[in-house]
Amino acid sequence: MSGDAAPEAEPSIAGRVFGEGIVPVRRYAADLTDRGVELGLIGPREPARLWSRHLLNCGVLAVAIPAGASVVDVGSGAGLPGIVLAATRPDLTVVLLEPMARRVAWLTDETARLGLGNASVLRGRAEEVRGQRFDVVTARAVGALRTLLPITAPLARAGGELLLMKGAGVDEELEAAASVVRRLRLGSPRVEILDPGEATLATRVFRAIVP
What predicted TM-score, i.e. pTM, was given to this entire model? Predict the structure, then answer.
């Protein structure tokens, strides 16, 4: 195992959050614990909170995505939330969009190891693939809303949605991005809290409809 911290035990709530996807998510957790720090995908302290800080809050996002949707995970990195969404929701078609070659290699190998036939990897930045359109655009820890919205909104089809995972400062980010929201004519912009039943695991998501 790479990293300085002992791996976090799987929480009892995981089975309810991931359903039948728990098997590939467990394998993914083990792979991230074994190699994530070495490859620079997660920090040395992250194995000790991998489930509670990363996997569960990505799994909770799955309930917000319509059935059969096409999804792009912008700046996928280690595969959060894209790999988790693909594992939890086999009805989705998930594209993991990542510009860095070594992360692209990890994502390609990992989706193959996990048998995620509904996930594919695309190397590039959001600005470089605007010819493609998706039902849902998601991102996690990529940047503040005022800079993230202009690069993610063009990837959504008309009537598609942005589901951007954010931290505790999302309300302030939304206020600072008000002029961007208006310029992009995003519909019903709001912050939602997705709670799996334990408040400490709640996930904040900026949600908006793309015109």
Answer: 0.94
